[in-house]
Amino acid sequence: MVPGDANPVPHPFHVDANGVDRTPGPDKHPYYAQFAASESGIVPVVRQVGGEWLPALLICRYDDVREVLRRQELFSRAAAAHADQVDVSGTMLGMDSAEHAAVRGTVKDSFTKPAVSGLGDTVWAAAEAQLAVLVAKNGRADLVGDFAVPFALNVISDLLGLPEPDRAQFRRWGDMFMGSGDLSRAEAARSAEEMGGYLWQQLDQRRGCPAGDLMTRIATAAADQPVDVQVKLPLSLIVGGWETTASSISTFVYLLRTRPYAGHDYAWDHLLKHPEQMDGAVAELERLHSTSNGDEMPRRVMADVTLPSGARLTEGDIVIPSHDAANRDPRVFTNPERMDFGRDPNPHLSFGYGPHYCIGAHLGALEVRVALALLLQELPGLRLAVAPDEVRWKQGHAILGPSELPISW
Ligand code: HEM
């Protein structure tokens, strides 16, 4: 099936009709660029949710995607819960309007640009500490397990104030929580329950004995929220904050070490010579190779509406604003498939837009920039320890990225 066919296209595009992932890797399916450039930019798709194939409309033009993300009174997340592949009910991601603002409001001040820029030294120190563990591996290690995952997990856990010895179990819970598919839906419920029990205990401790950390803030500021909402607030910060960031670090290192750029065999060599281009490079990698599967956040249309492109939607439609398609809209990004570290402006939507704009966007981007800068500085000879096509990529997971990245230096 191709764009323009009357038949709905199975979605995600890289999974075939039998649920088998055919093209794992960091590159987006070519449909995204085709759909973004198309006149209507609205693509009927079918997605497997809880064993059923559900219809939805994928929104692909940049202005339309922003409109859907911006107007939550017209495009409701809460009313689309049945169409979610990952169960995010009770978290910010599953709420609308006043309810959403109340929950987000309890922690948003800790993640503003000024608040995060004050964390630069702490994040650098956490990266250095983890790099020491990696370097002790004697010339060969797994960038995912030995560096990216523990580093990102430690940053968010330190901020929340969660004890170090408890962190090992977060990864198991997180993997179960973010899995998509039938089996993993049951596992996700179990992990949310286990992790919720643990986080409730932590909140309870802070109420008796305030500790000046983010958990203490949640324990007091969100005390009037239902228990489920209170525990899912730190849960969404941990799960949303570490897997995405760790996956971005590993995916971007893979790309920098395998893709040519500006006359260099590898973009890595270009950045070694031009470290001042780090911010532009990270923004461009985020645009082209977003690790957050934004296409899994459907919304329900609450009243008939016409989008900026002129496309009409009907009350009750389930729509999916596609960040990956919007990031390739040639009306906004000149030559969109070209990787250009100097692209300015680069208003990509890989952190979303509007009320659900990623609360951790500044923190996540800081962590990615720090990790890449430190690796370039300390391990300039870093390279993949296996052939690029031997790298294994996560399957059936809402966050995209390699499951392991063997490196040597
Ligand atoms: C590079 C890393 C990251 C990427 C690519 C990413 C991506 C995203 C995206 C696309 C959304 C919006 C989903 C939508 O449209 O509905 C989102 C929301 C969210 N992100 Fe991130 N994120 C990253 C890092 C973080 C970090 C570090 C944290 C935690 C501190 C975090 C916590 C959240 C939360 C709690 C939401 C829900 C916000 C709301 O619904 O109001 N993320 N993220």
TrEMBL record:
MF term (GO), any: oxidoreductase activity, acting on paired donors, with incorporation or reduction of molecular oxygen
UniProt keyword terms in alphabetical order: Heme, Iron, Metal-binding, Monooxygenase, Oxidoreductase
SUPFAM superfamilies associated with the record: Cytochrome P450 (SSF48264)
Record-linked InterPro entries: Cyt_P450, Cyt_P450_B, Cyt_P450_CS, Cyt_P450_sf
Annotated region (Disordered), positions in chain: 1-26
Cited Pfam families: p450
Stated family: Belongs to the cytochrome P450 family.
Name under which the protein is recorded: Cytochrome P450
Natural source organism: Micromonospora craterilacus
Taxonomic lineage from the root: Bacteria, Bacillati, Actinomycetota, Actinomycetes, Micromonosporales
